[in-house]
Amino acid sequence: MKTPQYLVLFDGVCNLCTGSVKFLIKRDKKKKFRYASLQSNIGQKVLWESNLNPNKINTLVLVAEGATYTKSTAALRIAKNMGGMWSILEVFLLIPAPIRNLVYDFISNRRYKWYGKKETCMVPKPEWEELFVD
């Protein structure tokens, strides 16, 4: 399967991550993004192709226009590509990634404790199925 132009990979069992995907879907009026869990077949394939170890990945991943982004860079590039008021968040890309990722990692390392996790990956609503790839 060909990778979509804008593919968001997320932790499918993380409540914060799945909540973030639902937030994006509701605001992505142009339906620009496609989604897959990190645990899915395509998620695993994309991670290997991007030289990211699927067994050690603990981040949001954006594959956009042939490039792969992780952590805060992925989140900010998603905001940029959402358009509208969200694109203003692009200004934070001026902050060096190691500094931005301190905040990202702080939240990421506590997301299960703060938001919980599911036993199985998120199952999209029927009206969202076209937005998910596997």
Describe the structure.
The chain starts with 5 loop residues before the first strand and ends in a 19-residue tail after the last helix. The chain has 134 residues and is of the alpha+beta class. It is globular and about 35 Å long. The protein contains 5 helices and 4 strands; from the N terminus they run E-H-E-H-E-E-H-H-H. The mean pLDDT is 91.
Summarize the structure.
The protein is an alpha+beta fold and 134 residues long. It has five helices and four strands. The protein has helices at 15-27, 41-49, 71-82, 97-108, 111-115, and strands spanning 6-10, 34-37, 61-64, 67-70.
Number of strands: 4
Instruction: Work out the radius of gyration.
Output: 14 Å
> Major sheet: size, sense and barrel closure?
4 strands, mixed
Q: Are there runs of 5+ residues with pLDDT below 50, and where?
A: none
Distance between the termini: 8 Å
How much of the sequence is in beta strands? 5-15%
Number of helices: 5
Mean pLDDT: 91
Instruction: Indicate the percent of residues in helices.
Output: 25-40%
Order of helices and strands: EHEHEEHHH
Strand arrangement, major sheet: 2-1-3-4
Shape designation? globular
Task: Look at the helices and sheets and give the structural class.
Answer: alpha+beta
What's the topology here?
Elements (H helix, E strand, L loop, with lengths): L5 E5 L4 H13 L6 E4 L3 H9 L11 E4 L2 E4 H12 L14 H12 L2 H5 L19
Parallel strand pairs: 1-2
Antiparallel strand pairs: 1-3, 3-4
